[in-house]
Design brief:
The radius of gyration is 17 Å and the shape is globular. The protein has a 6-stranded parallel β-sheet, with helices on both faces. With 175 residues, the protein is α/β, with parallel strands linked by helices. The chain contains 7 helices and 6 strands, in the order αβαβαββαβααβα. Helix 4 links the parallel strand 4 and strand 5.
């Protein structure tokens, strides 16, 4: 019989508490959408404080829990443990929202969208005077490349990509 050794990840998977308490992580989804709802629903299960930023009052009123809902990124409590995902690149507020997120302290900022098309955020940010070095901090595409098509698949790929990035792993099946 071979002896089985456990590492910390294995022990946690079997019910042991993590060895060290992690700082509170926040996942901010910007703009209410089916993808944002999936992201934020699963974010709480993954140890994030879920926050929805929705500038439009009507859309904000219709947003469902489990997230805290705020009107702008300045009210979202951004810090060095915050991952921010923009879930709609067609909104008129895109430039202002990203400008404010880039001005705050965040761990990671990403924008959903097809990588075969020009980034819809670049021109609005340049028009607002955001330097190219800051614009380059916006990740696009986001998530693992798993061929996502549905809101749930996009959310899974995005969350897996954030976890891989936070843990300095490449994602996918490269170990």
């Amino acid at each position: 019989m071979t002896e089985h050794t456990h590492d910390e990840s294995c022990a946690v998977a079997h019910g042991a508490p993590p060895a060290a308490e992690e700082p509170t992580r926040t996942l901010v989804a910007v703009f209410a959408s089916p993808v944002a709802a999936r992201l934020l629903g699963w974010a709480a299960d993954l140890g994030y404080r879920p926050v929805l930023v929705e500038p439009d009052a009507d859309r904000r009123a219709g947003a469902a829990p489990p997230a805290e809902v705020v009107a702008d990124v300045k009210a979202a409590g951004l810090d060095a443990h915050t991952d921010l995902v923009v879930c709609d690149h067609h909104r008129a507020e895109l430039g202002e929202v990203l400008r404010d997120a880039l001005a705050a302290e965040t761990r990671w900022i990403g924008l959903m969208g097809n990588p075969r098309h020009p980034g819809p955020h670049i021109e609005p940010l340049r028009a607002l005077g955001v330097p190219d070095a800051d614009i380059a901090r916006v990740h696009r595409p986001i998530g693992l490349n798993i061929g996502s098509r549905t809101p749930a698949e996009i959310a899974v790929a995005t969350l897996a990509g954030l976890i891989a990035d936070r843990n300095a792993r490449p994602g996918g099946f490269a170990f």
